[in-house]
Amino acid sequence: MRTYFDKLLNPAEQQKQLPLIYPLLIALFSGAVFSFALAPYYYWWLAILSPALLYACLRKRTAKQAFAIGWSYGIGLWFVGAFWLYTSIHVYGDTNSFLSVLMIAIMALVMGLFTAVQTWLYRRFFPETPLTFAPLWVLFEWSKTWVFTGFPWLFAGYAFTERYLDSYAPLFGVFGVSFAVIILACALVEILNRKVFWIVPAAVLLLGAWGASQLTFVEQKAEKPLSVSLIQGNIPQDLKWLTEYQTKTLMIYAQLSRTEWGRDLIVWPESSIPLFQTDIEPFLDAMNAQAKKTGTAWVTGIPYWDLPESKREGQPMYYNSIMATGDESEGLYKKQRLVPFGEYIPLSGLLSWVLPALQNDPSMSGFSRGASDQKPLSVKHHDLGAAICYEVAYPNLTRRNAQQSDFLVTVSNDAWFTGTAGPLQHLQMVQMRAKENGRWFIRATNTGVTAFIDHHGHIVKQAPMDKEAVLRGDLPAMQGETLYMRLSDWPILAFSLLLLIMGWIYRPRKVDVSFKSRR
Question: Per the database record, which ranges form the CN hydrolase domain (predicted)?
Fold first, then answer.
């Protein structure tokens, strides 16, 4: 008896398909292994094999079967790929193991519906070809950046950060890289199915990646590099917001910064000051005076209580923010995207019994969203485009903040996910944002990964994780715009939509007939 894969790939076996349970299990496994293509494992070839298996499993299946197969893939993808949430829910959320796993399973069931709808549309309305499967994949990755506020994780393009296909990033962003990855994955299946002409478009994509790598969009400004020090305090998450630990937190960051005054810029991570600015004005005044005295700019994460806005709105308006002060520096950036379960609790009143320990954490409730038209931070005559923590996962948001900037800065607190793949996957996204926008990224974190990332997306220097550390670097300011910075995701989205329209118009009539006959 032939193997199931032979049946998947051989058109002669169209009428001899094995029971649905086989593609369901293969899809579940394929989705589950996808995350190992990303940091910290870097088995990039799995980002090709995983969608290739899904593509093969959908061959000659009905739309209803495709929905089930896609859902199975999505469940495996999100349950394994986002299992790093377990640490924040169980360890820091004080939720028992069973409920923690159950919550991740529910999340996987919900997020898996993205792939389920994607595969249903693919088999219901379009011909079986990489030129319809890949565009749908890209459009559904993009939808994860905005549907229900978005959960933009586990994109295929991230597997090629600092690898060959990433040269498409300055042109078309991470979705352009994902498009190339999925076309190559599907082409592999078609070639194994003896449709050898797919070698040509695969070769064109690879040759195009080489050509894209030869393009130059940005250049270094003719001025001295900015000397920067990043401070990593390594404050445990379970102590961070305790009243009795707040003074110690400030002392740790102040002590680590003592040797750094006199450099151009010192950066503290997200909420490194665990108090509102209204509660700690003497400390802020002292730090500002020290910074001005030594000719240093100081950028720090801090929860910010906007008093004038609170009066206008008739309620407290709190923001997770980055503040720039000190010598020749000013600005305040208010976070625009808040992460559910990592920063606030959706439906907190209904879920208070599930996550009891998080109800009194100031970082988990009450924050408002910042405006979308905020100015960059001004530091030493440089403009710094800012992003706080989870925001760097949103390509277009980071692109908007990067416009008219010389550098990009992000502050984060990944202590929620210590010991998991989450912080390293988060860093991988920062690398892709640097590549897309052609800017150096300054990344200061509480527990890691604190790093300097150049405009090519390469990690130039990083601090050890889960340790107190000071990371120093001299960074050149960049000027110019990548194609992605100018046009955003619209070129790859429009191209994907065009392919789908053409696929729908020119689909074989027998596809529609086969569906009618199976209903």
Answer: 231-477
Q: 242 and 198 in one domain?
A: no
Which token pair is 100? 């923690």
Annotated catalytic residue within 240, 334, 335, 380 = 335
Residues 6+ apart with CB under 8 A from 102: none
pLDDT per position as a tens digit, 481-491: 999 999 999 99
Q: Does residue 12 fall inside a structural domain?
A: no
**pLDDT tens per residue, range 392-418:** 999 999 999 999 899 999 999 988 788
Active site residue 389: yes
Beta-bridge mates of residue 384? 377, 407
pLDDT of residue 7: 53
* Total residues belonging to the chain: 519
Catalytic member of 128, 141, 190, 270 = 270
Asked if residue 379 lies in contact with residue 299, where contact means CB atoms within 8 angstroms, the answer is: yes
Cα–Cα distance measured from residue 147 to residue 394, given in angstroms and rounded to the nearest whole number: 12
Residue 241 confidence class, pLDDT cut points 50, 70, 90: confident
The active-site residue, picked from 57, 141, 260, 389, is 389
What is the largest distance, in Å, between two alpha-carbon atoms of the chain? 81
Does the residue 275 lie in any domain? yes
Contact call for residues 33 and 73 (beta carbons, < 8 A):
no
Say yes or no: 370 and 238 in one domain: yes
pTM, whole model, 2 decimals? 0.90
What is the number of domains present in the chain?
2
Q: In which domain, by residue range, is 153 found?
A: 18-216+487-506
Angle formed at CA 199 by CA 193 and CA 205, multiple of 5 degrees: 130
pLDDT in tens, 221-239: 988 999 999 999 999 887 8
Structural contact between residues 499 and 118, judged by C-beta atoms closer than 8 angstroms: no
Residue 42 φ/ψ region, left for φ over 0, alpha for ψ in the -120 to 50 degree band, beta for the rest: left
| Closest listed residue to residue 386, CA positions, set 453, 334, 456, 423 | 334
Do 293 and 181 lie in one domain? The reply is: no
Asked if 65 and 107 touch (Cβ cutoff 8 Å), the reply is no
Rounded distance between C-alpha atoms, residue 147 and residue 92, angstroms: 27
Report the distance separating Cα 165 and Cα 160, nearest Å.
6
Residue 369 falls inside a structural domain: yes
**Those residues with Cβ within 8 angstroms of residue 245's Cβ, 6 or more apart along the chain or in another chain:** 235, 239, 274
Residues 422 and 273 reside in one and the same domain: yes
CA distance 283 to 277: 9
Structural domain contains residue 356: yes
The 10s digit of each residue's pLDDT in 303-336 is 999 998 888 888 888 999 999 999 999 999 999 9
Q: For residue 442, which of 222, 158, 154, 226 has the smallest C-alpha distance?
A: 226
- Cα-flanking dihedrals φ and ψ of residue 101, to 5°? -65, -40
- Residue 388 predicted with pLDDT over 90: yes
Provide the 10 A C-beta neighbour count for residue 144: 17
Based on the domain organization, do 470 and 494 belong to the same domain? no
On whether both 39 and 118 belong to a single domain, the answer is yes
Looking at the fold, whether 451 and 377 belong to one and the same domain comes out as: yes
